[in-house]
């Protein structure tokens, strides 16, 4: 399990990284925390001809409040989000440290990055779910400058995003959040990618749900929204029956894969169970 | 094969300058280029944690990092924690509480816990269990490891 | 030349037991003390020496071209592109290994079909991962580059991916020699009266259980470094093995060399659990290539290889029927057992190892009066099996204990009642069971009673009902078993293997300073023999265990032995050490008697001194005796001194540890997830040489047993492709997946060993699958569901709950009509 050979280039700035990507061509890849990429390279499931190491771009490691939302530098570590304690940053974003604790383990969280996870686009990745949950905008820098990519449509398929090969994510912007959010997961073994994960966010005004997001992880080629469930929640009183109905809809609207850890039917069942929990918990925070 | 690149890395306080092929993992560089064979390789995909070392003070799977990435950085390995004649406090706790059997995974656990106790000198039992769950051991069922970490923390190994 | 140091010689007991003054055996005995392990200090400081750490300059790295189809004819192997890669020294195929014999594990019995396991596949592959060609290159990285360039042309053949398929009429034959794919068909006795017993029994209960394929997955995979020593013409193989001498035999046989031309060194080994007690073809291959190329060759199994091509285990199916009388006494047991043994037979124990053990040991700790069994080993196009901690016992116990729970329900005696009625009573030992095994002595009923008590079995229905009222599903499960350990040559001989292990030898040698080196044929790789053997020696010689070192793992240095597996070392190896120590103690007493002008029988060795019993004032330091024996032998009569050593052997007749395991689980009715709330072990392994090490062995075994019960499974698709080739899919449990284990001991010393100790290394893993499955089923019974297979995946639990609920509803609907 030794990787195929590649050339290695360490970028001293985001701009240099982008120009290196352009120069090295389509077989070049960015190396941030490397916690997924390098494992795939060791299996030779990924074999980039060149790696552009951006892991030292300290200017991209930050979590800042902005306009009621957050701006998260692409190289913020999982542990940076796990250890968020500033109430000013956490308001409405309590799901982020909660989600970070589901990501691998201590050593993984000390190396893996927020932006790297989103660019990797694993369908069970917590940060990809968070991006959908919080209506993220990805700031992508390419040879022609920066563009802001809305999360809708960003995740194209399994490990596939709307980023161009010569673009890098520099920042992820999360607008002002719905007040309540939560994530619930089920994995067979502690620290593993979830068999199914569900995140939910709700905004309620008095007794009425004004807005809701329900995001599913691990059940399709990409993280996905459960639109039917969201529609059921919006305008409702968020009582137990509504939550149960929304959870049923979240499950019904999916066609999850089956594997050695659970059949498609089991995954659908888990979606329903976890969706009810996540929505209930989010409603409790809202 | 691409050309070797020159790197300078500090291991346990000693600076080394060497040329490595970019694809060589930090684990292989430490073990075979620099002879720090106390760091072991158990899965090469980041799950087992046997290869855990500290890079600039934080735990890292040295199988998921290339040697070239350690250029200019400071690495700590198990060899720095003590010697057979003078065990460090965490090592002493591991022997006192039978925290190892075959000893293959042990260096990874020691490095993991070293970083953890530096950051969290007074952990709860739950925090200990969560962090010990980062790595795999096939011999001990973790019982002795958990007791050793508890004892080391109580003895102030992290402070 | 490679480093020829086989395992460091380390001294034990550097830190004595808590509260003991250094140099003094607490309570007069070192045996029984929880001494810190001698091995720890160097392992904890990164000073261990594992084979992978060795890389002499000039080493060629070996990587394997492995089959990626389960069954095929090899039509062509084209290595030209690989050979043109700079840094690639050679690509070896079967054609280059003419004269290297395949590994052939043989049981000399009519119901066994012998098959060859080729070192490299020549014209046929029978499982994914089977080695076809070996690439030798200057680095491990380059070797893998070259492997990708070797082109193999396969003519794909039908593959049988399961035992069921293999037995189906018209199934493709994995081996031509076994057209029906049955490699072992074992029916030890006809038991014609059994049908009558069943026909008239008050209760007949059934159990049908199965277990998924697992693997030992030691943290250090298999690894070896082979060199050719041109000075001596020897092949020197450093390898991560549990059985150095057996590897030497296999390599010598395969390479057509005398055994003295092969030296096998096994330094520190990062776990084995049985997987390394058989000979890997890669070990033979590395040796053959080192001889062929006159180069040092290193092979390091990576984890993908380990999980796909490394030996696997325990894919078994049991159908049991039990006949019980009205009082719940078992009258008869009828069993059909199938073991999916994969594509080849491992050397030397063969693919019959699981098949025979399952049949022979199924009756376990119970008084089974009449028994009939058919046990088959079925070839499939999957990776071969080998022993894994407990071999078939975790499954045999799983089946038997499932049956006992069913019997408890059918008879109304409950789980404890029916077991207690059938467990062999202390008054019956030695007990000869229905298979002819002679159980020494134990606490079968007592361990059950104590375990039940610790678990609060008496109050359990109320506790369970309260949890149910809160919406929680909890369950309590028990597993009783006996652990036959330390088979001697008599037991192994009955298997009819062509090489018969069982005895063990040890040399105990005192140096002129009065310190001792033990040379042993066993192989500690986590079991702490450097410590436990030192405790045995220290008591015999009256010296501090810190003055005793162990040397092992080098066929050139240590007496012929069978290594460490099957819970044999403290019995067989420790027995040989005890005997040799007693011999040496006699020599010391004679020397002392001569110097002190006393009778040897009046002397005792204690506290580092030889002294007249009851007169400590009259004493000579043992170090002085040692010095005299070596450096002043002229003072001694002929026949005394001139060195101080003794070699002894021990061939055990078998010891039988016993235990009851108990688990309390909580099953999530919404996810099917199983959480272990408690895990209790009450075990009896006789005299514990070092209780700390015993507890460690139990705990490690229990963790592996729980892994097999809830997490671990090697899966294959219908074409025989492995689909769990990484630790992402093969789920070795973490600390967060296991509870704190509660381990308790009873002690019935066995009269069959010099120390009173019984073997116990496998017990932990034997009880856990059954205890956990029974606990889960106790929980599920509340909703009318059950599961009959391990690992118990949440998806299976959920499916069982859902099926029970819907059959409930349909029953309700029927009633409504």
Describe this structure in words.
The complex is a heterotrimer of chains A (286), B (159) and C (817). Chain A is 33% helix and 26% strand. With 286 residues, chain A is of the alpha+beta class. Chain A has a 5-stranded antiparallel β-sheet with strand order 4-5-10-6-7. Chain A has a 4-stranded antiparallel β-sheet with strand order 11-12-13-14, with helices on both faces. In chain A, α7 (114-120) packs across α8 (126-133), α9 runs antiparallel to α10 and α10 (240-252) packs antiparallel against α11. Chain A is globular, with a radius of gyration of 19 Å. Chain A starts with 6 loop residues before the first strand and ends with a helix. A 5-stranded mixed β-sheet of chain B has the order 2-1-5-3-4, with helices on both faces. In chain B, α2 crosses α5 (143-154) and α4 packs across α5. Chain B is elongated. With 817 residues, chain C is α+β, with helices and mostly antiparallel strands. Chain C contains 20 helices and 30 strands. Chains in contact: A-B, A-C, B-C. At the B-C interface, α1, α2, α3, α4 and α5 of B face α1, α3 and α18 of C.
Outline the fold blueprint.
The complex is a heterotrimer of chains A (286), B (159) and C (817).
Chain A: E1 7-10, H1 14-24, E2 28-31, H2 37-42, E3 50-53, E4 63-66, E5 69-73, H3 78-82, H4 87-90, H5 95-100, H6 106-109, H7 114-120, H8 126-133, E6 137-142, E7 145-150, E8 155-157, E9 160-161, E10 168-174, E11 180-186, E12 196-205, E13 208-217, E14 224-225, H9 227-233, H10 240-252, H11 264-285
Helix pairs in contact in A: 7-8, 9-10, 10-11
Chain B: E1 5-11, E2 14-20, H1 26-33, E3 52-55, E4 58-61, E5 74-76, H2 89-96, H3 106-119, H4 125-132, H5 143-154
Parallel strand pairs in B: 1-5
Antiparallel strand pairs in B: 1-2, 3-4, 3-5
Helix pairs in contact in B: 2-5, 4-5
Chain C: E1 10-11, H1 40-44, E2 60-66, E3 72-78, H2 80-83, E4 88-93, E5 124-125, E6 131-137, H3 140-149, E7 151-156, H4 163-167, E8 182-186, H5 194-200, E9 203-211, E10 223-229, E11 234-239, H6 244-255, E12 262-265, H7 281-293, E13 297-300, H8 303-308, E14 316-324, E15 330-342, H9 352-361, E16 371-379, H10 393-411, H11 414-422, E17 431-432, E18 438-439, H12 444-455, H13 460-469, E19 473-485, H14 489-495, E20 504-510, E21 516-520, H15 529-541, E22 548-551, H16 569-596, E23 603-606, E24 609-612, E25 615-621, H17 622-631, E26 645-650, E27 655-667, E28 674-684, H18 691-711, E29 741-746, H19 763-780, E30 789-790, H20 794-816
Parallel strand pairs in C: 2-13, 9-30, 11-12, 15-16, 21-22, 28-29
Antiparallel strand pairs in C: 1-22, 2-6, 3-5, 3-7, 4-6, 8-16, 9-14, 10-11, 10-13, 14-15, 17-18, 19-27, 20-21, 20-26, 23-24, 24-25, 27-28
Helix pairs in contact in C: 6-7, 10-11, 10-19, 15-16, 18-19
